UniProtKB/TrEMBL annotation, chain A:
It comes from the Bacteria. This is NAD-dependent dihydropyrimidine dehydrogenase, PreA subunit. It comes from Thalassovita taeanensis. PROSITE patterns: 4FE4S_FER_1, 4FE4S_FER_2. Keywords: Iron, Iron-sulfur, Metal-binding. Coiled coil: none annotated. One of its GO terms (molecular function) is metal ion binding. InterPro entries: 4Fe4S_Fe-S-bd, 4Fe4S_Fe_S_CS. It holds the Pfam family Fer4_7. Residues 10-42, 47-76 form the 4Fe-4S ferredoxin-type domain.
Automatic annotation (TrEMBL), chain B:
One of its GO terms (cellular component) is plasma membrane. Residues 448-556 form the Fumarate reductase/succinate dehydrogenase flavoprotein-like C-terminal domain. GO terms for biological process: anaerobic respiration. SUPFAM superfamilies: FAD/NAD(P)-binding domain (SSF51905), Succinate dehydrogenase/fumarate reductase flavoprotein C-terminal domain (SSF46977). Residues 14-382 form the FAD-dependent oxidoreductase 2 FAD-binding domain. GO terms for molecular function: electron transfer activity; flavin adenine dinucleotide binding; succinate dehydrogenase activity. This is Succinate dehydrogenase/fumarate reductase, flavoprotein subunit. The keyword RNA-binding does not apply. InterPro entries: FAD-dep_OxRdtase_2_FAD-bd (IPR003953), FAD/NAD-bd_sf (IPR036188), Fum_R/Succ_DH_flav-like_C_sf (IPR037099), Fum_Rdtase/Succ_DH_flav-like_C (IPR015939), SdhA/FrdA/AprA (IPR030664).
Amino acid sequence: MPLAQTATSVPVTVNKDLCIADKGCTVCVDVCPLDVLRIAVTDDGTKTAYMKYDECWYCMPCEADCPTGAVTVNLPYLLK
Amino acid sequence: MDEILDGLTQIDCDILVIGGGTAGPMAALKAKKKNPEANVVLLDKANVKRSGAISMGMDGLNNSVIPGYATPEQYTKEITIANDGICDQAAVYRYAEECYGIIQELDSFGIRFQKDQNGEYDVKKVHHIGTYVLPMPNGDTVKKALYRQLRKARINIVNRYMATRLLTGEGRVAGAICVNTRTAEFLVVRAKAVIMGLGAAGRLGLPTSGYLYGTYENASNSGEGYAMAYHAGAGLANLECYQINPLIKDYNGPACAYVAGPLGGYTANAAGERFIECDYWSGQMMQEFYDELQGGKGPVFLKLNHLAEETVAEIERVLHIVERPTRGHFHAGRGTDYRKTMIEMHISEIGFCSGHSASGVFVDENARTTIAGLYAAGDMANVPHNYMLGAFTHGAFAGEDAADYIKDMDFAEFDHAEVEAERLRVLAPTKRDDGIPPNQIEYKTRRLVNDYLQPPKVTAKMQLAQKRFAEVREDMEQGMYVRDAHELMRSLEASTILDCADMAAAASLYRTESRWGLYHNRVEYERDDENWFCHTILTKGADGQPAHAKKAVQPYVVDIADEEKDAYYNQRVDPSVAAE
C-alpha cells in the first residue's frame, strides 16, 4: 500500500529571526524527549530549527532551554 | 540525520542502567558511590538532561515519610489498604524507612522542599489516613540538579540509544541490545548487572483527543521496560491493576488535586458538590470518579473558584511552572480562569504504572527482579503507589545492591545468534518498499485497547481484543514499513505497545474476580479473597504466549486490623452531609 501525504499543523513553532541554529546551536533538538525537532536550511541559506515530526507531548524543554526565546510550544490542535 | 546506516558496536561495562529519568540516575549515582571503580553506563533513548516523567520537574513529593509527621508503620499500612491488601510490605516498609535520607540527599543536590516558619518540612495531608505530601517550590530544577551530580560522579551517559532486548545467559543477565534512534546502528552492551528504570507503559490506551502523544505519562515512556522484561523471562506482577488517573480533560495532564487540596481546592461534580472525601488516587477513588462521570451529576471538575485571590495565584504559580507548564497555555487558550470557572476533569486512558497503581515488573525490597543481576525501579517496578520519591529510593536500592552483586562477577556468556535474530527483527520494516507505517499500527492497537480493555472489563470483549491484537501483530510483522531511523524507533515502540496490550488482556482475563476498584472491575465477578488474595505473575510461556501463576502475598510486617481494611471503601461523601 503506497503512503499518502496527509498534512497536520505542528504545535512547536520557531521564530527564525531569533533562532541561532546557524551558529551551531542545537539545544532544542538535543533536549526534546520525543526527538521531533530538526535543523533545516531556509531559502536564504541560513539554518533554523523546526518541528519535523508531529509527535509532541507539549512538555516544553525546547521552549524553556532555548537560549534566545525562539521556540514556542502551542497545544496540538486536536486537544487545545 | 535519520538516515538508516548499517553498523554494530560492542561495549562492556560493569553496570548498565537503562533509563535516565528518575530511578536510573539515582541508581547510577549510588552504584558509583558504593563502588567508585565500577564502570557505570546510563543509557537513554532521549537525552538524560530532559528525559522521563519529570522532564520539566515535579510539584512535590506525594509520599514522603518524615519523622514527626508519619511513621514507616503508618505509611506501610496506608499503602497496603489503598492497594486492597495485595502488597509485599517489605519493599514498602524499607522505602518508608529510608526515603527520608533520600529527601535529605536531594536537598543537598539543591532541590528545595517547602519549610514552615520554624524551618520544619511543611508536610500536607492528602491521603485518607496519614500526612505525606511535601511541596517542592523549585521543583522545576530537579533534572538539572540530577544531571550536575551525574557529571560530577563521572557516570558514562549514552543518549539516543534505545534498548530493545535484554541478553541473558548462564541463568543471569548478560547485557542489552540497543539501537541508535537517529542512525539505526546497533550497540551491544555487555554488562554484569542491568538496572531498568524505563518508566510506565504510558502509550497503551488512546487519549480521548485521539492525539497519539497527548498521553498522561511522558509519551516517550511507551513500555519498553515491561516488554524487555517479558521477553527476557522475568515475572511481571498484577498487570491487571491498570493505571487510570483523574486529569484535566483533553489536556490530559494531572489536575493536581495534591497541590490544590491542601490549599482548599477539591474534586466536585457539575453542581460544585464534593462527592469523595479524599482526593488521593486509589482504585476505589477512581471507581467513585467514574460513577460520578457516568451518572447524572457529571462531569467532574476541579473546583478552585471559591478560594481567595492569593490562594488561586499561588496554585497557578506552582502549576504553571512545574511538571506540565503548558497547562497555563491550555487554560489561556480556552479562557478558563481558575477564579471564575471550575476546571473540567476526566479519567485517563489505561496504562501500566506502579508509581500510581501496582502494575509492574516483580521486584523484592532490594529491587531485584526474578532474573539474577537484573533490577527494576520506578514506575515499571511493582512496588505500589511509589511516585517520584519511590523511584529515587528504589533506584538507590538497585544501585547499591548491583554494586555488591558485580564484585567477583564476570560477564555471562550469551548466544550471539540472539543478536543476529534481533537485528533481523528490528530492521525488517526497513527492508520493504512500502507497507503500513508505525503510527497506523500504533493507533489501531491503542484504539482497540480503548474499545475492549478499558474497565469495566467484560470477558467477551477482552477475548475479542486478543483476536484483533493477533491480526495487528500479523500486519506488523509482515507489513510494517519505515523510511528513516526516527520512524524505526516508532516502529519499535509500536511493537512494545502491542506486547503490553497483549499482556494487559491476558492478565485481566486470568484474575477472575474484581479488585482495586475501577482498575480491575470485572463486571461478571465479585471480589474473591478466598481464591485471589494473591499476586498474579505473568511470564513468557514456552509457547511464546503469556503464562500465569499465583504468588502468595508475603506475611505482613505491619498488621492491619479488620476494621481498618476497608477504610478506602468508605470514600463517598454521605449525601446527607453533602447537602448541608
